[in-house]
Each structure stands twice: as structure tokens, then as C-alpha cells.
Request: fold
Amino acid sequence: MYFYIIAAGMFWILAASALCAPKRAIYLHTAAFLLFVAIAGLRYQTGYDWLVYENYIHGVNDPSLCYMGPPMEPLFWLLSALAGITPDATQTLFFLTACFNGIALYLFCRRFAAPFAFVAAIYFCWIYLPLQMAMVRQSIAISFVMLALIALRGAQAKKAAAWTVAALGFQVSAVLFLPLLWQRPWHWVWKHLNIILALLLVFAACVPSPSKLLLNYIAQADLFYISDKLTSYLSPASFVSRSASQIGYLIFNAGFLWMARNKMRLEEDDRFLLYPLILMIVPEAICHDFVYIWGRVQTLAVPCQAVFVCRMFMRTNLTIQKKAVILGICFSLSGAALLYRIHRPFMEPYFPYYNVIQAHYDYTLSDIGKTRMDATYKSMIEHYATIEKNANYHPKLSSVLKTSELQPKGVSGPNCTVKTPYSIWKQWYGAIASRSS
Reply:
């Protein structure tokens, strides 16, 4: 836990130092970039995704092994095959991904004239842990979407389309960002933003979430790839009850957009950076209980929001005292977001943080990640078992995947129809854990 707090402190020290010493800013931004890459790129069996991707890479590079898990996209398959050439494929995958993500974020900051260290400090506190250490494919897709947005602002429509296709090749959820490619409707949305925000807040307050109804419809429609893909992510953990923090976050985002729309003098680039936030607040208000949708959009909205804040901070003629107050507010909100993140349930796979250098010299760490994951998933299975009893899934959601299709070589288990997504999840983890032992 303390590692992440110290790392966040380092990001903020670098950000504040870069603002106070512009002549040395290049060195401070470089240090922030290296820190950004190192934490995710050199991690060892830390986070939620490493066991799944290790299993997947082994399955890609060894036909005798049967991968068991959610379907993965073609470009990620290619990247996994290339990583499999190296002695430690999983670590190679993580390092290459972290480097690419860091470069994409740097290019995004440079295009919109925002200091990298400042953006990285906000990014780290809000979404770094889930995005860079639990959703590798999503992080790659977001980086490609950032490149697409850069191309779009440069009037390079074909290049923007190519980057978007690449994003879809790594994570199909990038389809959520397709509306950003059509700019004309967004001018209308911006013009009527106050009305839209009011309607969304009223809907969130008065209307029950229709997410389960929509998911049942998608399952019945049997859409090519999409139904199977979405179903593979479903479990009782996919749906969350509305909490005070979630309500506060929705109100904060709505207030942020209202302030930007009505109280700030914005350029076209500034408005462009807020479109992903508008795109996020729609499912956040309507399908608040299904975090999988609006949480994916959040992985782009937060970096864009951070760049927007940095642009306002750098461009506004404020006294040093007022800038210090604004910096303090950003630090306080980001610190609260990080503390909230690391104190959430089932965060054990993140604590303590291990890297490949430690693992190289300490052989007792060889199975530390599997031990943590095993304990965490057992706790999660016990916790969500009671939720499963009351879950009311459409038959399609409980029968898309069969245990016979998920049965890897060397793992024993009954060949029967999986009754619920929770059962898929339980058997999926059990098979991965058995194969890794």
C-alpha cells in the first residue's frame, strides 16, 4: 500500500518541481515518464491480470495447451505470439505495453500543450492501478484511441480511422469511442450541454438502471462476437449497488462540465478534450450499476480531463498563491481517489508491490503472485456466492459458454453446462490456478 502512496508523492513532487523550474522541466518530465513505465513494466506477479495473460501467452505459443478464458482480439494474439519468442514472455508483454502507453500519453500531452508530469500525477492517482495493472488490452486500446484523437485534431481522418481500427484489434470495447470520430454532433451536444446534464441527473435520481434489461436483450440478439464477449465478463461482481462515492463522482463530473461550459473561456481543443467526459457521464448516469461500460470510458475520460485541467492551469493568468491553491485542490482530490482505490475490497494482488529485480534475487517470490490470487479469488467466490443465489440472468447469459469449451488439458472437472456466469468465473480461475501450479 505504502509503495503506491510514495509513488504518487514522487509524481506530484516532479509535477510541482516542473511548474516551479521550467528550465529543468525536460528532466523532470523524463523522470516522470520513466517512473510511469517502470511501475507497470517491471511489476512481477502484481495486479489482477498477470495470471490470465501468462496462461493466454502459453496457450498461444504452445498448441498442446488449451487457453481457458474470455476471447481475445487478433492484434493482441499477434503481440502475444511475438512476446512468446522471448525467454520471459509475460514480463516482455508488460514492459512493451508500459513503454507504448507512456509514449502515447506523452504524445497526447505534447499535442495539447500539457505538462507530462502534471498529467501523469493525476493519471496515476485515478486510473493507473486498474488500467495499467489489471487491463493490459484496454490500456493498449486507449493509447491507440489517444493517437486517433491526435490525428483527428490534425485533420487526418484516415490516420484517425486506422488508429481506431488498431484499438479495436486489441480490445473490442474501443467501439465505445467511435462516436468521438464524428465531430459535428458534438457541437450540438456542447450547445445543449446544460439541458443534457439536467436530464441525466434527473434520470439517475428517479429511474432504475436498465442495464440488466439491456444485457438480456443483447444476449437474446446473439450479436456476432459481441454477445459472447460481453457474457464472458459477466459475474455477480459486474453489478454494483449505488454508493455515496459513486453518486458523488457523478455529481462532481456534472459540476465539472457545467463549470467548463458556463464559467470558462474555452478554445476548440479544450472542448474537444471534454467530449470523452460527456461520453462517460451518459452511461454513468443511465447504467450506473454496470461499471464495465462507463468504467471503460473512464479510462480515456480521466487522461483527457487531466490534460484539460493542466491546460487551464498553465494558460490562466493567476497569481502564484492562486496557482498553489489550485495545485493543492488537484493534489487533495487525486490523493483521495488513490486512497479510495487502494482501500477497496479484494486489492490484495496489488500489495505489496514486487518487481522483476526483486524476483531475480529472491527465489521465495516465485509463487507469491499465485498465492495472493488464490486467496483473493477464494474470498471473492465466497462473497459473491450469496449474490449468485439471488441473481436473475437470462438463459442466454448462463449458457453461452460451456465447461466443455473451457476445459484445458490437465485440468479435471465435470463436462456440464455452466449455469451462471459466476460458475464460469469460478471454474475459469480454478483451471488457470491448477495449470499454473
Observations:
- Confidence is low (pLDDT under 50) at residues 393-437.
- The chain has 19 helices and no strands.
- The chain has three domains: 1-134+318-366, 182-316, 369-436.
- Residues 369-436 form one domain.
